[in-house]
Amino acid sequence: MRGDFFARKRMNSLIYLGVLSLVTLAAIVITEYNVAKGFTSIPKAIFWGASNFYPNAESLGKLPDILVKLRETVLVSVAATSTGAALALLFAIFGANTTRFNAFLGGISRGIATVFRNIDVAAWSMILLFSFGQNVMTGYFALFFGSFGFLTRAFMETIDEASGGSVEALRATGAGYFHIVFQSVIPSGLPQMVSWVLFTIETNIRHATLVGILTGSGIGFAFNLYYKNMNYHAASLVVISIVITILFIEAISNYVRRTIL
């Protein structure tokens, strides 16, 4: 029996590998991608980056402006995540199996969360451009909608995993709905929810760079402007600033997670 199990597992792995290889080959043929040219261009790309994509003395003079744009991006990301988390918590309580009012309302909450979660932030940016144009509000709402969808789903799973037993116990004692939510559900799931919010803030700062290119705001706009003007030294300074900021935010998030979890 054990040998048959591993034999089937190896056979399934070979089948998946074969299908993946066929799909990859088909994609290469359809797109007419030159594999050899792609690999041989890597050294040239590295050489070009080492020769052009680095900060110089002139680009350092633009650092104050870059930091202003970076601050704007971070603040918008935090604001979009925070407000999205507040609304997500409400929908998660209505949609989670342990706290929903009824199956109909729970289904609506889950459906809304699924729609918002499966539309990419870049797609939200392009949709919202028609309504708000290229400005900070477009970027904010794009990040807000993406955060709301993702966090609603994450909060639902957290509520169901962390508070299922305690909710049943409180119901057995005759506790009211709001007492259960505020005395059991939120306290038991809060550490994991905070962890999800911190993760979303990190993700939104990464997304905000692309969103800024589309919406003409924040650090993404600065990078796009310098790159299109072929000011690669300033563009590289933007990239370095983004990387340092993301690493700093991630370090803070990891410290908070270790503290609360």
Short description:
The protein is mostly helical. It is built from 10 helices and no strands. The protein folds into 2 domains: 2-33; 57-260, MetI-like fold, CATH 1.10.3720.10.
Question: Any overview of this molecule?
Answer:
With 261 residues, the chain is mostly helical. The chain has 2 domains: 2-33; 57-260, MetI-like (MetI-like fold). The chain is built from 10 helices and no strands. The model has no long low-confidence stretch (mean pLDDT 83).
List keywords for this structure.
single chain, 261 residues, mainly alpha, MetI-like fold, 10 helices, 88% helix
CATH fold-level label of the largest domain: MetI-like fold
* Low-confidence runs of at least 5 consecutive residues: none
CATH architecture of the largest domain: Orthogonal Bundle
| Overall spatial form | globular
Give me the secondary-structure category. mainly alpha
Please report the number of helical segments: 10
Task: Furnish the topology, listing elements before pairings.
Elements: H1 2-31, H2 35-52, H3 57-60, H4 63-95, H5 103-118, H6 121-132, H7 136-172, H8 177-215, H9 218-228, H10 232-260
